[in-house]
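Narrative of activities, Objective 1.

The group set out to show that a structural description can be obtained from nothing but a protein's sequence at a throughput compatible with the screening campaign. Below is one input-output pair from the validation batch, recorded exactly as produced.
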Amino acid sequence: MGIGFRRELAADLLARREAVDFVEVVAESCYVDDDARREVLALRDVWPVALHGVKLSLGSAAGLDEERAAKLGALARALAAPVVSEHVALTHAGGREIGHLTALPMTREAARVVARNVAATRRHLPDVPFLLENVARTVAFADDALSEGEFCAEIAEITGAPLLLDVANLYANARNAGLDPLAELGRFPLDRVAMIHVAGGLLDGGFYYDTHAHALPEDVLVLTAAVLAHTDAPVLIERDDRFPPFAELAAELASLRDLPRGRGRPALPRPPSVIDDLPATELAARQSALAAALVDDAAALLEGVVGIERTRVVLLGKRVDDALPLLPRLALRRAEVEPLVRARVEHWPRPRERVGIADALRIGEACREVPALADDAARDLLVLRARFAGPDPDGEVHPRRGPYLGRVALGGRSQWVMKGLGSRAPVRILSPRGQTR
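Output recorded for this entry:
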C-alpha cells in the first residue's frame, strides 16, 4: 500500500510511517522547487519512492520532448526509484502547453505513436519498469475504434510495458459513457497490471470528475477488489486537495490493505513489438488543432470532438493546481488563496510554455495585495524570481541565466536572495538574522 506524497501529508506520514509501504512523488514538482527536490530525496531514507510523471506527453504525434525525458531519467536515478510511470495522454501540441492530461483517440495509430515515444523515453530511464497509466477522459472522439480496455491492451502489447491501472479513471470514464464499469474492467489486460491507483471524485452537472479531492467511492473499492482478484499489484491512493484528518486516509489505506489478493505477480516488462516509423502527420495536425481549441478562447469547436467546453473549465482549475506547488508557503494556505485567484486565471494571458510558472508569479503578486498573505507571498516570489524573469505582456517567462540579487522587506527587516551564473545555479537565501541556506 502506498500514497502520493504531498507536503500537506508529510507530518502525519512521518509520524505514522507504518501506514504505507511506499510513496509516490510527482516528478514535475521537483524540477523548479529546489526545496521540494531536497525533501523528496530525503524520503529515500524512509520508504521506497516511486516516480510519477505528468507532462511527458507520450501521446504526442510530433514526437517526444527529449529534454523532459532526460529530466525524468535523471530524477529517477537520484531517487533510486524502483518504478517510473507516466500517462498515456497528450499534454502539449503545436507549441502549446495544454496543462491537462488530455485523452487520445482510441485508435491503433495513436497506440503506435505512444509506442514510439515510450521507446524513446526508455533510452533516458534507469533499468526499472516503466508503467503506462490510463487517464480520465473529458473529451471524446467520434473515430474511436477501440474500447478503453482494448486500447490499453494494444499499448501494452506493442510497447511491452506493464500498466498502471487507474481504477478511479476507469470508473469515471465508464460512468460518463453510460457503461458498466465492471464490464469495462473485463476488457482490460489484467495480467499486465503492475500497479493500481485509486482516488475520489465528484458528480457535477451529470458528469463524474476524478478530482483526487474526495473520499474513495464504494464503487471504486468494488472495482479495486475485482482487479486484486487477479494480481498482487501494489495499490496507491492519490489525494491532492481537501485533505481530511489523516485518520480518514489511514482508514482508507487499511480498507484497501484488507482486500483479498490473487496470486498473480505484478507484470514485468516484455520485449516490445516492432514499431513502424511512419509519420503520424494527420494525427499531429489534429492534436495541434485540439490544443488550440482547448487553450485559445477564440478557437472554434472541433468537428468530431465532444467535451471541449467542459475541458476548458477543467483547465482553469488545473492552472491553479500546477502553479500553487511553485509557491510552497501559499500552497499550505490554499483555502485562502484559491478563491482569490481562481476567478482571475481565466483573464490572464496564457503563454505557449511554462504556464505554471507564469501563473505562479501572477498568483504571488495577487496575494501580496492581501495583508494576511503578503509575507508568505513575498518569500515565495523572492525565490521564484531568482529563477525566472517575467511574465512579459504576452505572459511569457524565461529562465534567468544571469546572476540575480533580490530583496524583500519583512516586518521591518530585509530578506535577500542570491543566485549565481546559470539557470540551475543554487539559490541562496540570506535570512533576517544573517544566516544563509
